[in-house]
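Human: Here is a favour to ask of a fellow structure person. Comparing notes only helps if you start from a blank page. Give me a protein, with the fold worked out from its sequence. Please set it down just below, with no commentary around it:

Assistant:
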Amino acid sequence: MKIFAGLFFYVFFFAHGVDSACPSNFVKLGDSCYHFSAERSTWYDADSKCRKMGALLLSIDSKEEEFYIKLHMRHDYKDTRMWTSGIADRGKYIWHSTGKPILYGTWCPGEPNNANFNEHCVELWEFGGRSCLNDNRCDDDGSKIKSKISFICEYNK
């Protein structure tokens, strides 16, 4: 019943909300507007592209925001990886857009692990009906390991 009530609440109040305060190509979820980009970029390029839109890469500031972002991804972006503003800073993970520690957001099992000592940026990974945070390479060095993925921009009115 909780899931049904949550889904109803999401669909009724948040799904593809129209709000004149949101820029075009942004969807209103809760108190913020989000742009879910299908374009694939490195973390650095994604950060720059969000800023050019007057927005910042996603920072998850509450359990409610996490719930609605994940529900939106699960509904519209199955099996997708998307950059957030999360970065490693002196051994801890913070939201680059706010400077605050990552307190909300469920890490994938075994993450963050800083594999090969070069995973310093945080993605939201939707796969198999679940979503979680994962640390990943910030750039693309041309190797088989690609770090160009989609991204989420957040616009706060």
